[in-house]
Specification:
The protein is mostly helical and 221 residues long. The chain contains eleven helices and no strands. Helices cover 61% and strands 0% of the residues. It has two domains: 116 residues, Hypothetical protein af1432 (Orthogonal Bundle); 89 residues, Methane Monooxygenase Hydroxylase, Chain G, domain 1, CATH 1.20.58.
């Protein structure tokens, strides 16, 4: 079992990578993902030690990716940086391999590197659940503003989303486009039975929000 001392040291090291992070991907996101992952992991009977470490380290390269405006994948780079941190401890090769796999495969937009282990599927679901629901609505508007895109909408979101192109960090992006391109699809991408149960209410909240949003934009309410 992972000792509290080692876990605290890993958390301390992870926190260093969040100094100056944007609000949509700050340390509070990590805390929420950790809570969600532990909840799902317990229900799915996953290795909770792997989940704890992977959750703490999963976004350690996100700040730098945002500064570089998406010029590299934070999941792949994060796995490389996490490997350096884990090398300081005497974890088994299987444990380290699983943690790094969790980190490398948690990104929604990467369809080539899909989660294979139960723990990776748990982290994937936890990270995606934090993208939707009430928390997700707040985060998506914050992300668009931080990325220098249209914070709210440009009126062409549904047409742009149909093209299937990723407009992240682009002037044509917006909070509403992120919903059309990614967030509304998350309910069909969760991987665990527990995640599938949890996603329903969050997805419905988000659908209701954006339905109300467009009715207000069009002056219907």
């Amino acid at each position: 079992m992972l000792s509290k001392e080692i876990l605290q040291k890993i958390e301390t090291e992870a926190r260093k990578h969040f100094r100056g992070s944007s609000g949509c991907h700050d340390w509070t996101h990590v805390e929420r993902v950790l809570k969600l992952a532990l909840h799902i992991g317990k229900a799915e009977k996953a290795n909770l030690d792997v989940i704890k470490v992977a959750s703490l380290l999963h976004d350690i390269s996100r700040r730098d990716e945002m500064k570089a405006r998406g010029s590299f994948c934070h999941a792949k780079e994060g796995a490389k940086n996490a490997a350096k941190i884990l090398a300081e401890y005497e974890f088994s090769p299987d444990f380290t391999r699983n943690v790094l796999h969790c980190i490398r495969t948690h990104r929604f937009r990467d369809r080539e590197n899909m989660p294979q282990t139960l723990e990776a599927k748990v982290l994937f679901d936890a990270d995606k659940l934090d993208c939707i629901g009430a928390i997700g609505v707040g985060r998506v508007f914050l992300f668009a503003g931080n990325a220098g895109s249209n914070i709210m909408y440009n009126g062409r979101e549904k047409d742009l989303a149909k093209k299937g192109e990723d407009y992240t960090y682009h002037k044509d992006d917006s909070a509403v486009l992120e919903y059309e391109f990614k967030l509304k699809k998350i309910k069909d991408r969760v991987l665990t039975n527990t995640g599938r149960k949890m996603v329903i209410a969050r997805d419905q909240f988000m659908q209701n929000f954006f339905k109300e949003f467009w009715e207000e934009v069009e002056g219907k309410r």
